[in-house]
Amino acid sequence: MLSCMVVCPPGEVPNVGVPARLSRGMTIAEQQEWLQAFLRGRQVSRRSALKGGARVLAALGLAGTGWDLAGCGAAGRAPATPAQLAVVGRHLSFGLDPATTMAIAGELTGKPTGRVLVDLGTGRDYGHTIEAEVRELVSLVPQEDRSIRGADQFFVHALAAGLRAGTSYHYRFRLPDGSTTPDATFRTAPASSSLEPFTFTAFADQGVNTGPPDGQAGFDDNYYKADDTRRSATPADSLVQLIAAQRPAFHLLAGDICYADPSGTGQPVKNNAPRNADSGFNNFDPTLWTTYFATIEKSAAYTPWMFATGNHDMEALYDNNTAPGGASHGYAGHAARLDLPANGPSRCPSVYSMVYGNVAVISLDANDLSTEIPTNAGYSAGQQLSWLTDTLTRFRADPTINFIVAFFHHCAFATSSTHGSDGGVRTALAPLFDRFSVDLVVQGHNHQYERTNPIRGGRSTMQAPDQSTIWPAKDGTTYICVGSGGRPRYGWQPGETDRYRGAPDPNSGTVVHSYIADPDGTKTPETVDWSQARYLDYAYLSIAVRPAPPGGIASMQVVARSDLGREIDRVELLRLHTSQPQ
Description:
By secondary structure, the chain is α/β, with parallel strands linked by helices. It has helices at residues 4-7, 20-23, 28-40, 46-59, 235-246, 288-300, 332-337, 383-396, 423-435, 472-475; strands at residues 87-94, 102-108, 117-121, 128-131, 133-142, 148-160, 168-174, 184-187, 198-203, 251-254, 305-308, 352-356, 359-363, 403-407, 421-422, 440-443, 449-452, 455-456, 459-460, 468-470, 478-482, 512-517, 523-528, 531-535, 539-546, 553-562, 567-576.
């Protein structure tokens, strides 16, 4: 076993009740194992466990249903009676083939006493039934006073397979007492030969606008700057409302999903109300996921939401994958809550690809590559980049695929007073994107909207102002930071300003002073020539794709809209659809 001196820098050894003489020689994972074994014989305080759950249930209108987040002792929590059970926070995601599979999920308000089913069909008479899987997630959160706050959550999942391409389906959950959720619909991806146009949307760094997690200051609405006069009252929710009204084919979220971990450094968990955990630890509230799924349900129950992982998604409470060197990526909670296509490298659960019509989409895990926040850097031992090279080779050899879109969290190219560009991400990914002529890269991490000129070899190949036309095959890759999905905004570098349609100074220039986050923790200044559009408030991408027959020109129109629905930036990417590999 590796000693804790290898895994945990000084001051970062969990101090949650493990005797000091033992903890000094333990890894994080070993301390978690010791703690869970210690708790198995001791019942968690019901009063402590209920603290976080009551507010969430009241907000969802579920108070009095009998659901609680009671402690997880040796016997576990008693099942809810059938009359008390409900499904909240329904959300969809594609399976391995978006044309023939759909994963249907939600959260149960208790442990079911019988089978949970999904009724499915092309009409409201359904006709097909799928038995759902129930995944229990027990979260034991150490508190600063050495108590343990327990949460016991149940997530229900069903995979619909053998579906018809380009077809609309109805579905509903059916509970053991025969009660059902309201009817909802989804549509599968078209066949690869289809010329049907479609739209997808994207943003990152979302969170919720319902107040801070219990016991944490977090990010509540009062944190937004007083001069955010261009925004709605609740940006994270307003953007979901706009996407729900648009009903895109799918939605991409490029990391930092709900901010149950508001610190975002992937450190061991120890809550210290009311604001910050002790040095070397992160606060964590698993009940915030319940609020989050309820927030996105108005869209995600009808539109597949596809997630990448960011630094705030490294939930160190969970450890199901120990990487070389002992770093644990903390994605076990996502395995219980989310359905992600399992076609990426085995060590990287949030790395996957999918093809929708003529567009290939690749989700990457920038936590594995980051030099700015290196907690999980290198955990894939090179598997991610090897898989990415093979995947890009395959996609560019497929003549039915016109466009390749990659999405991930930390920015390869962005300017900001907070994160700037991540040197590790840029070094690892930009040469591959150049080599395989990736069309569009969607990033997050910096809480702002920023679009680059098309880039090749680290520099602009052309100026691409608002409403420009770009040919990626010759011009290069367009990188967009859309970490403007709801979390309070950051700032630009000193002296830099907004540059977007309608800005007070829309011609403020594309030469910007910024920096690269380096492996040794330094910020190396750089002057860049590629920062084309900049908007320091809340926005999302709406990307309209129009396929073309062989010999025709396929288009991808990329539009940025604010949380008030205003269009602030637009470019069009074009590719000739040939019958040869591109």
